[in-house]
Write a structure and sequence with these properties.
Elements: E1 2-7, H1 10-25, E2 29-36, H2 40-46, E3 52-56, H3 61-82, E4 86-90, H4 93-101, E5 106-109, H5 116-122, E6 128-132, E7 143-146, H6 152-155, H7 166-170, E8 178-183, H8 199-209, E9 214-219, H9 239-245, E10 248-251, H10 254-263, E11 267-270, H11 276-283, E12 288-291, H12 295-309, H13 314-328, H14 332-341, H15 345-352
Parallel strand pairs: 1-2, 1-4, 2-3, 4-5, 5-6, 6-7, 8-9, 8-10, 10-11, 11-12
Helix pairs in contact: 1-2, 1-14, 3-4, 8-12
Amino acid sequence: MRIIIDINHPAHVHYFYNLYKILIERGHKVCVTAKAKDISLKLLDNFSIPYYCTGENKKTIIEKFLSIIKSDYVILKTSLKFKPDLFVGFFSLSASHVGTLFNKPVIGFADTEHAKLSIITTAPFTDVVLTPSCFKKDLGKKQIRFNGYMELCYLHPNYFTPDSSTLNLLGVKKSEKYVIMRFVSWNASHDLGHSGLSLEMKRRAVKELSKYAKVFISSEGKLPEDLKKYQIKNPPERMHDALYYATLLYGESATMASECAVLGTPAIYLDNDGRGYTDEEEAKYNLVFNFSESLKDQKLSIKKGIELLRKPDVKKEWRNKSQKMILDKIDVTAFMVWFVENYPNSVKIMRKNPDYQYNFR
């Protein structure tokens, strides 16, 4: 089988890395197209995955529209040479466009309910949309739900082993508590109307949490001079190791909050819209704490952070809860490999017997 996987965000590199590797090992031909957003291309280089760059991420509506045209062109040109049988992507508008043009099936993934524009523009050109079972929207006949999170694609124990040498890179001792704070740039299409933590509250969070643990900041945007000294020096490809050994994650990234749920690290996540998966990780597994962007909730989130840092054996407690959650979920990558290799028969099987997915643990 000849497959094109389209990457539009650094997180997508992690989502599809194991799928790519396993498909290649099984003799399939896989071609990767990727947008230059943040560290996405660097991650692909670190994983030694060849790719065709589809352009840079843009901020304004007009620039985004023009970037779609360029991305369509690059994937079209690549497809003419590669001759794919199947396209795979996460909210991948351009891959779905070209797949439709070539009359080839497009398998899409989605887990962000309020990414309305991406859903509206992508779904009509996608043959099947795979979403976590906790996804709150009904996408109609094309939707197939799986009992897992996208973060399990790469952090499931079947694929991820933490490397304690990251502690040396961070300059912390094995028994030393530390917090990773994550600030996002809020320039994605589904981030319109969001402001996140105010600069004043970021400073306050750093000041208060620093009383109980060492603080590191991971930020998509430029930090003010007084916060630059907290900027994490750990290489981006080692972030999951850092999250595994952290005592707490505090910030604005749903993906990193969910990563911590899988890794057994307490997470505080602030966002007005939330996510189906972080809501479930709080309500069902008590692994993530969700707060809005209101000033009241920003203050309460800092208070919750202090409470968690002062909690005895908090990491042991979270590891146990995380292990129970993982046992409850499927091995998402194993499911993805089966679904792609057996398409379209896999669709028929899942429609007839959704519990078939529990063969993948």
